[in-house]
Model the fold of this input.
Amino acid sequence: MPIQVLMPALSPTMEKGNLAKWLKSEGDTVKAGDVIAEIETDKATMEVEAVDEGTLGKILVPEGTADVAVNTPIAVILNDGEDGSVDYASVKPEASKAAAAPQQARTAPSAAAEPPKPLAAPEPDVPEGTEMATMTVREALRDAMAEEMRRDETVFVMGEEVAEYQGAYKVTQGLLQEFGAQRVVDTPITEHGFAGLGVGAALAGLKPIVEFMTFNFAMQAMDQIINSAAKTRYMSGGQIGSSIVFRGPNGAAARVAAQHSQDFSAWYSHIPGLKVVAPYTAADFKGLLKAAIRDPNPVIFLENEILYGQSFPVPKLDDYVLPIGKARIARPGNDVTIVSFSIGMTYALKAADELAKENVAAEVIDLRTLRPMDTETIVESVKKTGRIVTVEEGWPQSGIGAEIAARLMENAFDWLDAPVTRVAGKDVPMPYAANLEKLALPTVAEVVEAAKAVLYR
Amino acid sequence: MAVAQNQAQDLAQSAAARQPAVVRADGAALANMTKEQELSAYHLMLLIRRFEEKAGQMYGMGLIGGFCHLYIGQEAVVVGMQMALKPGDAVITGYRDHGHMLACGMDARGVMAELTGRRNGYSKGKGGSMHMFSAEKGFFGGHGIVAAQVPLGTGLAFAAKYRGQDNVSLTYFGDGAVNQGQVYESFNMAKLWNLPAVYIVENNQYAMGTSLARASATTNLSKRGAAHGIPGEQVDGMDIRAVKAAAEKAVAWCREGNGPILLEMLTYRYRGHSMSDPAKYRTREEVEKVRNEHDPIEQVRRRLIESKRASEDDLKKIDARVRDVVNEAAEFATHDPEPDPSELYTDIYADEAR
Done:
């Protein structure tokens, strides 16, 4: 039987890649383990190995093709005696194996995987006629750091693989080349140590950007973040504070199970002395990271691995800085409020699309900052709609949705026409199995259902 | 071990090692001290001793709350170390911190008022005994979590190097802290990047109620940096001349750009771990023996008299001045008002965002 070679997934969240180069031609003999092609993603270039012996019968995707979806057949390997005159559609697929892939191949499940529709102007106060550039969240974050490092030489980046490797998720790409090893510092794998070292440098007046490869590993550093960074200003009577950003991907990735898939938004938002930022669009990531770096307080800057590769319009402005603590109305509407943040916005916006088909106008609020929380924007929306659904990937107990519900009891009780309803991650550790993982995360259908429930429809 | 030995040789050959020093009968290097230095050290150590005795009394009277860890017995360590510093150097320690603050030149009234939780305390009454700071004096706390100050102090050294200054950071921690993982995370980075960090283990023999031997698989703590290539030595922390000699050597080592260094100060606390410690884990005789034979203040006092650098009368005058300062601090800290209730919500954010 001829064997299909499929476009491999090179990371947990890869959805597509470019077929950079074929290293074998049609008719070439290949052995298992031979490198047959090179695949490029926005993070890295990887080699594709043949998984079986035979002859490269047909190349289905020519080199130079961009945005080839994972699992697309890219070539067919023929066994001895077979010829190329086969019906390729019927060929049994067999996944090819990527050489030197740092993480297991997988695809992103859930609604979050599909790229969102570009939104309108990301910020109402962007001057009319401002030119927009389309860029990924990853590029927006890199640009924000580079701009702030050019502006202030006390700003430096430290973390695991941030320099020579160019970032485990390629967020710090190019920074070493521009700013040198003194300001782009590769650390050992030592979260507790380098988080504390960063805080110490901040107490001495530097402005560190501490990258955690993911926030799962920041739990090792929790004492330094909470006890040293968040509290020192208070404990010193205002004498000494720390202007420091802790940033990195937070929340569920894809198929990496319980220890590498969790949302710490609520944890950090609990702590006085910290600011907590969790944007969704590339423009917000850029404007808020610049603000976080300039902020004189410790800022927890929560990114999301699945969002890194997604593109959004970003205003082409020399110095695009957004205020921390202000929510954004991502989509206006009068019937029901849906409030979310970070990747939760993906569910919220898709649900709003679905609801629109049934003539329900949902107002979608992107919190962007979790602490200080923009209660006013939520309350104003509820005064208009009388109904609200909160959406987050984190666990429900003591979550962001729970906090919003409490604030609405305190500030908008008389305006509510239905109970505040939460859509959250399920109250379980993240499972590995694809079907269970899907069940553990919120879905667009759950948001739609919750919105209808508060509308009594 | 080869690396550690090489480091030790480097240390011996460094300019830092060529400080003028005399050698005690047991081989310890002792710094020469001028009359002024000896008198000033006596004064400062006595201030710390009397301050701590007063703090103990005030704790007993209910004027000081919570945890209160006294430094009595260990005075020579901070006073000797401080003699090697210059402006711009940074000091950080754990929660047994009153002596460090006085040695840094912080005002006794402000420290005592912080202990009583009053508005003119160094932290406006919000920090207490374990959490006090002085940006002006280069004192970065006062940290309540055992060993948390070690990465922070390493960061202070990182900042000095980043800015191209020849300043150093002194990071103090106890024999209890040496078994925390973050100490070794810090050692590794400090040597990897050759940061100007002087690590000072104040080995007072007991981590709360647990003796060193009951908690540590190896008890020569000066070797705890060896795996990271950090040279270390044990120092008689009860003899200010030995401390000063070691301090000058270590600080010069760092200023020369050789990276971190570790000093294990062999010292002893006369009081319990905190005010609520009945100290059942050691005998009264053990404490008395150290007090009688090795007291850091008495050693200096005896030398001053024997060398005729000072008369009994001269020292009595110093004693009286110290008592006045301490009594005045206690008086101030007793009558200074508590912080205004509005202070509850200040100093959380630089911009008071909520």
